[in-house]
Amino acid sequence: MLSPVTANGHKLMSHSQNKRTPKKTPMTMHMIDLHCHILPGTDDGPVSADESMDMGRLAVSDGISAIITTPHTLNGMYRNLFPDIQARTEDLQRMFTEQLIGITLYPGAEEHFRPGLTQRILSGESSTLNHTGRYVLVEFPFHTVPPGVKDEFLKLKLEGIIPVIAHPERNTVFQQHVEHLVDLISEGAITQITAMSITGDLGLEARNCSHRFLEDRIAHVIASDAHSSDYRTPVLSQAVTIAGELLGDPSEAMAMVRERP
Question: pLDDT category, 23, cuts 50, 70, 90?
Answer without folding.
Answer: low
